[in-house]
Amino acid sequence: MAIARGFGIAGAVDHQVAARLAVAAEAAGFATFWANDTPGGDGLGSLAAAAAVTTSIQLGVGVIPIDRQPGDVIARRVIELHLPQDRVILGIGSGGLVHGARDAVRVGALLLRERLSATIVVGALGPRMCEIAGEVADGVLLNWLTPDYMPVLAEITRGAAEQAGRPAPWIGAYVRVALDGPAIDRLEEESARYASYPQYAAHFERMGVPAIGTCAMGNSSQIQFGLNAFAFGADEIVVRAIASAETENAYLELLQAAAPKES
User: Fold this and answer.
1) What is the rounded CA–CA span in Å between residue 92 and residue 195?
2) Facing residues of 240 across strands?
3) 3-state secondary structure string, 205-221?
4) From CA 203, how far away is CA 143, in angstroms rounded?
5) Buried b vs exposed e over 98-125: b needs ≥16 C-beta within 10 Å?
6) Cα–Cα dist 141/43, whole Å
7) What is the separation of C-alpha 138 from the centre of its chain, rounded to a whole number of angstroms?
8) DSSP letters of 177-241?
9) Distance (Å, rounded) from C-alpha 258 to C-alpha 263?
């Protein structure tokens, strides 16, 4: 089953490089272009640069931690940056919140739905945040998961939306992808870093795999095979690119290797 495919980069990538990568992603047939929002990076700024040079590709940020940027701040920035809301997917997450995380995300999603016409999605690892996504948002952005676990979380999200009388939610999933060579070392480092966080460690234990076991890596054929394993349960798979270096050429090489192929 062919599903939509997106391409995602680190939010710290220079905005002009991000713009050129968005053009390349649109030309290669990706449905969406994503930028992470990280300390030292500006996901919304990347989307503004990408919006100026593209025409149809959807533009996503995944995800903005609401403990760092509350909903009213996000809404104001979207308006100030003149982002095309009909093309924008705003991902929000709990960030470093431990207590009251789900309530905070619920409030943030509702505020953004009230003030903006953009698509609002919730970043989720486990079932409880998927329920919040189904109840109050337009969809969910899953992360660090196996092909077998993805339909489980998708069904929870859809069930929560149905119970809340909401439309069927969009189901998206980040999959970290790396080409053979130095990029694999970077992927292993990132996997180990995430596995050191308690909430992620619990997530990997729940699925019974190490962090690296949720990724697609190798040559182009191996990457395509790994991505195709996620063909059931989601509406879109986002290639979260782990390039050999934070350079335009390194990202372009991976973009071409992971580009959608005609069936």
Assistant:
1) 21
2) 8, 176
3) HHHCCCHHHHCEEECHH
4) 10
5) eeebeebbbebbebbbeebebbbbbbbb
6) 15
7) 14
8) EEESSHHHHHHHHHHHHHHTSHHHHHHHHHHTS-GGGG-EEESHHHHHHHHHTT-SS-SEEEEEE
9) 14
Which residues pair with residue 58 across a beta bridge? 32
Q: 151-154: long-range contacts (C-beta < 8 A, 24 or more apart)?
A: 151/232, 151/233, 153/124, 153/126, 153/127, 154/233, 154/234
- Asked if residue 243 lies in contact with residue 183, where contact means CB atoms within 8 angstroms, the answer is yes
Nearest of 157, 160, 159 to residue 145 by alpha carbon: 157
Distance CA 179, CA 155 (A): 31
Name the token pair of 141: 């952005």
pLDDT in tens, 100-129: 999 999 999 999 999 999 999 999 999 999
Tell me the per-residue pLDDT of 54-73, one tens digit each, with 9 for 90 and over. 999 999 999 999 999 999 99
Nearest to 197 by CA among 100, 125, 102: 125
Q: State the pTM of this model.
A: 0.96
Contact 176, 149 (CB under 8 A): no
CB contact set of 127 (below 8 Å; sequence gap of 6+):
153, 156
Task: Tell me how far apart the alpha carbons of residues 145 and 98 are, in angstroms, rounded to a whole number.
Answer: 21
Which class is domain 4-183+212-258? alpha beta
